[in-house]
Amino acid sequence: xxxxxxxxxxxxxxxxxxxxxxxxxxxxxxxxxxxxxxxxxxxxxxxxxxxxxxxxxxxxxxxxxxxxxxxxxxxxxxxxxxxxxxxxxxxxxxxxxxxxxxxxxxxxxxxxxxxxxxxxxxxxxxxxxxxxxxxxxxxxxxxxxxxxxxxxxxxxxxxxxxxxxxxxxxxxxxxxxxxxxxxxxxxxxxxxxxxxxxxxxxxxxxxxxxxxxxxxxxxxxxxxxxxxxxxxxxxxxxxxxxxxxxxxxxxxxxxxxxxxxxxxxxxxxxxxxxxxxxxxxxxxxxxxxxxxxxxxxxxxxxxxxxxxxxxxxxxxxxxxxxxxxxxxxxxxxxxxxxxxxxxxxxxxxxxxxxxxxxxxxxxxxxxxxxxxxxxx
Length: 376
Known about the structure:
Layout: E1 13-17, H1 24-32, E2 43-47, H2 50-54, H3 57-61, E3 68-72, E4 79-81, E5 93-96, E6 99-100, E7 105-106, E8 120-123, H4 126-138, E9 145-149, H5 159-162, H6 164-172, E10 178-184, H7 190-193, E11 201-206, H8 210-216, E12 217-218, H9 223-235, E13 239-247, H10 253-267, E14 273-280, E15 282-284, H11 287-293, E16 305-307, E17 312-315, H12 317-334, E18 340-342, H13 347-354, H14 361-374
Parallel strand pairs: 1-2, 1-3, 3-8, 5-9, 9-10, 10-11, 11-13, 13-14, 14-18
Antiparallel strand pairs: 4-5, 6-8, 7-12, 15-17, 16-17
């Protein structure tokens, strides 16, 4: 399994806030850092607060700090509603915020104009997280909670140090009215296999063509290794899911996404797939200016796009419709029972793609629940 752990840029320093020094996350980091040669020169520095790091000359002078990890106490809410946009159909999905910023460098990542810090952060006060989760789960009646990590950071890229996955999976194992989703672009799955009670967790991968992975998803696992990791996870007893998001429109997209889907379904047991989402590339105002400053390849923003009602730039409706229908048809030719849904899309687009009018999030939630029960 070691060959599936994706080497990330070595951490130069790990700053640990004094208030979380006795937490399981910090204990895991201190224990695991000794196992990897990549971290033999990594310095651990204890700080009173994040201000010490923000005011350091090193941080002020260097705005690319992916080699710095800050392990902090999170003072705000851990759990948030999935940030759906105005005018789009959303399901009742919730986000667990375990940290901010990602080891990877995807050109399209919204974090580039979402946060003003460049170092990696992990929130270590898991007791506060679990108290919040307990309160959330107790308030649920006659519904099934779907909640996941991976919105503000990759769920597994630092898992070989933090073992956050084991902590969360073990917590949710006896929560029968809940499903935890861990989203990743990595193949860093070793810790997942060590969990005895895999319970109510779905492991999901964001997938793209190998062309896009090499060009605009820097430092992430290859397509081959993501699929290999997903197969191992499925065989070990977890349910899995996939997110074709963002779909990128370019000259050879049909051939390359067709190849991706053939490779996926040749190597994955379809009866283990809980869901597949489709979403096309979109970006917020200000994104283009930021990627210009970072000297990122701007080809992803060169297609004709329009500013939609939710203040995001999107491909034209005809392009989005064509991509969704094409990829959905490929998936359902292989297995018509797989639940496919659109992410961050309008009700009108849902009707064009599925020939079905979905008027409310409740109807969409019922589809998720139907698929869950089919696979029990």
